[in-house]
Amino acid sequence: MSKLAVISLSGGMDSCVTTALAKVDGFELALLHADYGQLTEARERQAFHDIANFYAVPLPRRLVISFENLRKIGGSALTDPSIALPEGNLDRPGIPASYVPFRNAHLLSTAVSWAEVLGATAIFVGFVEEDSSGYPDCRETFLRSFEQTANLGTRPETKLRFFAPLLHSSKAQIVQKGVELGAPLHLSWSCYQAEEKACGTCDSCLLRLRGFEQAGAMDPIAYVGK
What we know:
By secondary structure, the chain is an alpha/beta fold. It is built from 7 helices and 5 strands.
């Protein structure tokens, strides 16, 4: 009997490799994506469908949801036009302006609801704690707490395990794992602010580029000026 997992797939590199790992672990894939008014919403959605097509995930097991409430709430440079997205700086202390307040709790709650309906036994997320942008809702303590909450708040027969296989990986290790697994990194999209060619200057682009450089690999996506 096949086992089913719900994977939160933003379309970025981390969630792309996470999807590949879930597949290698023998799970059937149900892919979840969220539109929340982010600057590159359409491009991220395209990456989601491109990766889903790569893994031949049928349409009934693809769910794109709208978190328009997060755009209305604002508080992030990704969703609020009154907040400027600063130039990338990987040494900047504190929580960056690109943090969307408590976004991952919304994602996980939706993943749990869908998993319960589908009869899935696992939820995979591309959280990266050690080499990320400092988002508080990407920490292991948050994920483990949410796993406990999810199992307390669902039917007794619902038994969900949460997996974040890249949680303590560096970006270089994620690139290496993606290459090793044949993950479609060329279909992924990480840039916070551009949709045709990646800007190469935002925090997300800088983290990605540094990961490829340290891994000794070439990033397959196009960047402005390159």
